[in-house]
Design a protein that fits this description.
The protein is α+β, with helices and mostly antiparallel strands. Among the domains are: 88 residues, OB fold (Dihydrolipoamide Acetyltransferase, E2P), CATH 2.40.50; 77 residues, OB fold (Dihydrolipoamide Acetyltransferase, E2P) (Beta Barrel), CATH 2.40.50. The protein contains two helices and 14 strands. A seven-stranded mixed β-sheet has the order 4-7-5-1-2-3-6, with no helix packed on it. The chain has a four-stranded mixed β-sheet with strand order 8-13-14-12, with no helix packed on it. The chain has a three-stranded antiparallel β-sheet with strand order 9-10-11, with no helix packed on it. The radius of gyration is 39 Å and the shape is globular.
Amino acid sequence: MKLRKLVSILGLTAALSLAAACGQNEGSTEQNQESTETEENGGALEAAPEDTEGTEEAAGEDAAAGQQEDGAVSEAPVKISGVIKEVGEDTITVDNQSENASSGEIILTIDPENTVLADGQTGLPVTLADVAEGSFEAYLGPAMTMSLPPHSTPYVVVVNLPEDGAAPQYAVAAEELVLEDGYYTLKATDGRTYTIPEDVEIAPFRTRNIVTLQDLTAGRACLIWLDENETAVKLILLEGTPGMPGETAQEETAQEETMQEVPAQEETAQE
């Protein structure tokens, strides 16, 4: 009996030992699996910054593309208006009272070759000596200094504005004019659309050449006076495109001189 009990006890002990060993192996296996999963997750977490960097780079490229697109739009002239405070030798200091550009004091540098300085009532060219304190409108290019006050070289400055009427609008043709039912449609580079009658009053700026609406081709600039119905009543055709009117001015001056030479040659031939 004692021997049987001893054998039973030994067998039970062996079974318990075996069960404990199996339990340890399973626990070790689970720990190994958890460790493996942790390492894999850790690797994924370590790889995450690389993905983030890639996302940031992609976002940066998108932002740069947006800036380029915005830059393209920003090249359209910026219209400001307000009061002339002081006129210098080659500058006009103004108080910009519009919400465009930098509000407050701005110094406009007048470039004789590239800045159109026009009378707001007649459309005739004026000099700095003709400019007096009063209201103005100006169209600026994209470049403006970060100084205080900021400086900018405008495309167009309109002075001597009519007291009881609107100032002329500066427009650059984005495409050829379209004629329909006696009216031309002018689409400008700033997105505005103008209605111009066939018989509108039109004249050149700084020259005596004969011009027509057919001369208002894509890229050509003009000043437009509008009535209460937003229909053009007067148009001054400027020389060239924004920032580069001087080149066309020289061409038109040469054409004008050629036109003057032709009658002189004909008179000489008749004599």
